[in-house]
Amino acid sequence: MRYFFHFICFCIIHTLCLLFVIKMFISEFLPAVIPVFGVGLVRFVNGLCTGYGNLAGTCYTRRQCRNANGVASTGCARSIGVCCVITRTCGQSSQINNTYFVSPGFPTAYSGAGVCTFTIQKIDADVCQVRIDFLTLRLAQPNTSGSCITDALVITGGASTVPILCGENSGQHMYVDFNGNTNIVISIGTTGAIGRAWNIKVTQINCNCPTKAPSGCLQYFNRTTGTVTSFNYGLAATQGGTRQLANQNYGVCIAMIRGYCGITWSQTNTLSFGVSGDTYTAIGDNSVGTITAEMFGVNCLTDFIVIPSPVLTNPSFNTDRFCGNGFATVTSNSKPFVLTVVTDANELNDMGNVGFSLNYAQTRCPVITTT
Ligand SMILES: *[C@@H]1O[C@H](CO)[C@@H](O)[C@H](O)[C@H]1NC(C)=O
Ligand SMILES: *[C@@H]1O[C@H](CO)[C@@H](O)[C@H](O)[C@H]1NC(C)=O
Ligand SMILES: *[C@@H]1O[C@H](CO)[C@@H](O)[C@H](O)[C@H]1NC(C)=O
């Protein structure tokens, strides 16, 4: 009998020990998705969480976070896990959702020269697209022809061509589709010891995700109202300079919200549309931002935007191409809602062009009465 009790005791202690060891093992070593039984053991999934500095992270075990070269911050999954923020820099790659690609020493300005590449590897076969958020992207301005020659950001490996960027693009974003299993590579070439910085968030998007952008849309907006700005939008620092980038040709798509049938485009302010021609002349004669400085149709041959089939009050606007240095408000009922941006290879004669900043507002469908 005594031996029997000893035996039972031994078993209980042994089992508790074993459970403890299993728990330690799980929180240290195993992928966190294993369902766990028994007292004191909790299962958790590698869900999204918010880590230090409000950055997006993944809930990992400490061990997983270390292995992923992440930075562990706040606890998650009832503090069994840690919110792990993944940051990568030059020459590195990532197969983890919500990875931040930063310049060396970010947020301190980086003045090195060379090519800095970051490789995006698909998490799994269910992923079709990435959203690239340029949280911070400050590179050298283009030359006076609009070419990115001092610094250039190039994205390769995706399913379609992505325009080359430089200058100030903080707050901008892009969607790039994967081309099969090929990695998408972001390369930033820098020359000259000027200060620049970037912090680029890469989100991987499942093929069946409702927020996935339609294929081919470089930018995608999903609200009823918003603002679309061209890359490197702004006023050039020097007379003769341009902020408009050369060789752009891309589509901006706006999700059609239920109950809305059209979209109205308008300039954000009188200086917010300088797409072709000499902006300084238009500023000088006070025509900037007015219909006098706006150009249409066949007069828009080098740099322009396209808004399909706009409803125009003035028949002489009978066109869907717009350029020049002013933009009169237009509404389009063509679907899908899309704005196409085109620039040619040389912005030399387009002095002081800012590019554009346009507000959009979706317009409600007419009420159909059946009487
Ligand atoms: C800007 O760079 C492009 C590409 O190298 C070159 O063709 C162009 O001549 C340059 N423009 C000026 C004004 O130097
Ligand atoms: C990546 O994270 C975002 C949230 O930041 C989420 O919406 C998306 O579904 C995640 N992608 C995958 C493939 O899990
Ligand atoms: C709109 O797009 C943002 C950015 O991808 C996303 O986080 C959000 O969930 C989307 N909203 C809707 C209603 O689709």
From TrEMBL:
Q: Which residues cross the membrane?
A: 7-26
> What SUPFAM superfamilies has UniProt attached to this entry?
Spermadhesin, CUB domain
CUB domain spans which residues? 90-185, 214-362
- Metal-binding as UniProt keyword: no
Origin superkingdom: Eukaryota
Q: Which UniProt keywords apply?
A: Disulfide bond, Membrane, Transmembrane, Transmembrane helix
Which InterPro entries is this protein grouped with?
A: CUB_dom, CUB_metazoa, Sperma_CUB_dom_sf
Q: Does the keyword Transmembrane apply?
A: yes
One Pfam family name is CUB_animal
Q: Which PANTHER family match?
A: CUB DOMAIN-CONTAINING PROTEIN, INTRAFLAGELLAR TRANSPORT PROTEIN 122 FAMILY PROTEIN-RELATED
- Name of this protein: CUB domain-containing protein
Source organism (scientific name): Psylliodes chrysocephalus
